[in-house]
């Protein structure tokens, strides 16, 4: 361990593993360590089911009706999206016209604007032009464009239109959902990027206690573990490794629910998501419900896992999610957690310590991807270029 690295990464959450893979592909010498014996960190998948009971201090063992414990892989923080909307006949016609406009929209071709200035016209005015009702606006802004508040309504419409266009094109690719979800849970994703990093020369060490992050003259120079020091030029880590360098900006409540039935009124879907826009429950934040099942190799046969999450706004968080829990009844078992939302106090450009944000209440990767791209830009001074990353990979493996 007494070596010098370009980058040391602490923590194996998805953000840290993706950045580790990216830096390795970029030719950086990377050392990746975690105090835990497993991948995933805060976003781990828990197996067997008995471990989930222990983690949440639920007394006793899971009942026999829940099947074998090894059949369960429960995400602590799920990230995916499927959306369904219901609307009347005339509303559907107006919404279809809007979607056709979005599909044809090209910010580089004024002929597709239809009198809308994408850099000046507010999204509120675009909705008005197509005569869309409030329920459809809520659905479009929060389930398709994936905004968490309504602030976007008074911003130039270009970004929102492009977000909806991305959703529509993603949906068209597979037909049922614009999103993908890995079998055996999201814990597979950090491991996949860890393998990518290892292929490009990255070194991984799990179950490694971190004794000290060494800083000299305000800049990181290394990490001490079990009496040895690994030197580095840059450090990436999750907030748990640098509690003095982060601040709390809120809380998230998450409730994992085990069900023996699909969610009502979803056509017995084996996976789905419901987004309850804040306007419809007199809140400032949306409530998210996502459901997965044995079809994804995350639960015993005939069982479903639904996870409810939202940003805490009151002193009674469990009351805040009651509208979502009512959709899931009857619930066999609940696992409730309340987590702090932590963000770095500074950009890290002086100390070269780059800290990820804790995962928010959303159940899609939008904000996680934003965090990854933001950290990459602060570390390298340039925007992340996915096409360039693919070219580097193909130069070595000759893949398409």
UniProtKB/TrEMBL annotation:
- Give the GO biological process terms: protein transport; small GTPase-mediated signal transduction; vesicle-mediated transport
Q: One GO MF term, please?
A: GTPase activator activity
UniProt xrefs under InterPro entries:
FAD/NAD-bd_sf, GDP_dissociation_inhibitor, RabGDI
Compartments in which it is found: Cytoplasm; Golgi apparatus, trans-Golgi network; Membrane
| Alphabetized UniProt keyword annotations | Acetylation, Cytoplasm, Golgi apparatus, GTPase activation, Membrane, Phosphoprotein
What is the protein's membrane topology class?
Peripheral membrane protein
> What are the boundaries of the signal sequence?
none
Q: Does the keyword Metal-binding apply?
A: no
Got a GO cellular component term for this one?
Answer: Golgi apparatus
Question: What SUPFAM superfamilies does the entry give?
Answer: FAD/NAD(P)-binding domain
Is Isomerase there in the keyword field?
no
Name any one Pfam family assigned in the record. Answer: GDI
| Family, similarity comment | Belongs to the Rab GDI family.
- State the oligomer form and interacting partners: Interacts with RHOH. Interacts with the GDP-bound inactive forms of RAB3A, RAB3B, RAB3C, RAB5A, RAB5B, RAB5C, RAB8A, RAB8B, RAB10, RAB12, RAB35, and RAB43; binds RAB3D to a lesser extent. Interacts with DZIP1; this interaction negatively regulates the interaction of GDI2 with GDP-bound RAB8A.
Q: What does this protein do?
A: GDP-dissociation inhibitor preventing the GDP to GTP exchange of most Rab proteins. By keeping these small GTPases in their inactive GDP-bound form regulates intracellular membrane trafficking. Negatively regulates protein transport to the cilium and ciliogenesis through the inhibition of RAB8A. Regulates the GDP/GTP exchange reaction of most RAB proteins by inhibiting the dissociation of GDP from them, and the subsequent binding of GTP.
What is the protein name given in its UniProt record?
A: Rab GDP dissociation inhibitor
The species this protein was found in? Ursus maritimus (Polar bear)
The gene is GDI2
């Amino acid at each position: 361990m007494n070596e010098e690295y370009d980058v040391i990464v602490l923590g194996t959450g998805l953000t840290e593993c993706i950045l580790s893979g990216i830096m390795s592909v970029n030719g950086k010498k990377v050392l990746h360590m975690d105090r835990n014996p497993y991948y995933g960190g805060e976003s781990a998948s828990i197996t067997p089911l008995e471990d989930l009971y222990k983690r949440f201090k639920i007394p006793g063992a899971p009942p026999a009706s829940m099947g074998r414990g090894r059949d369960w892989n429960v995400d602590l923080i799920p990230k995916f999206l499927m959306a369904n909307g219901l609307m009347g006949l005339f509303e559907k016609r107006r919404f279809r016209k809007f979607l056709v406009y979005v599909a044809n929209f090209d910010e580089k071709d004024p002929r597709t604007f239809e009198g809308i200035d994408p850099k000046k016209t507010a999204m509120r005015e675009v909705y008005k032009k197509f005569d869309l009702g409030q329920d459809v606006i809520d659905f479009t802004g929060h389930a398709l464009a994936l905004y968490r508040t309504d602030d976007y309504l008074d911003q130039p419409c270009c970004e929102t239109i492009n977000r909806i266009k991305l959703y529509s094109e993603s949906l068209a690719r597979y037909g049922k959902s614009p999103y993908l979800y890995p079998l055996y849970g999201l814990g597979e994703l950090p491991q996949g990027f860890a393998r990518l990093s290892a292929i490009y020369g990255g070194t991984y060490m799990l179950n490694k206690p971190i004794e000290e992050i060494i800083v000299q003259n305000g800049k990181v120079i290394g990490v001490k573990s079990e009496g040895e020091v690994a030197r580095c030029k840059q450090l990436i880590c999750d907030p748990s490794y640098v509690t003095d360098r982060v601040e709390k900006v809120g809380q998230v409540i998450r409730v994992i629910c085990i069900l023996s039935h699909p969610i009502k009124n979803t056509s017995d879907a084996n996976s789905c998501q419901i987004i309850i826009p804040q306007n419809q429950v007199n809140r400032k934040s949306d409530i998210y419900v996502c459901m997965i099942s044995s079809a994804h190799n995350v639960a015993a046969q005939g069982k479903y896992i639904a996870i409810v999450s939202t940003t805490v706004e009151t002193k009674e968080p469990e009351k805040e999610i009651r509208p979502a829990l009512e959709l899931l009844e009857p619930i066999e078992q609940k696992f409730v957690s309340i987590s702090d939302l932590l963000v770095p106090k500074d950009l890290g450009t002086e100390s070269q310590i780059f800290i990820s944000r804790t995962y928010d209440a959303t159940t899609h990767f939008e904000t996680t991807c934003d965090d990854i791209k933001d950290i990459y830009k602060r570390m390298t001074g340039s925007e992340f270029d996915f096409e360039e990353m693919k070219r580097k990979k193909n130069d070595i493996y000759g893949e398409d």
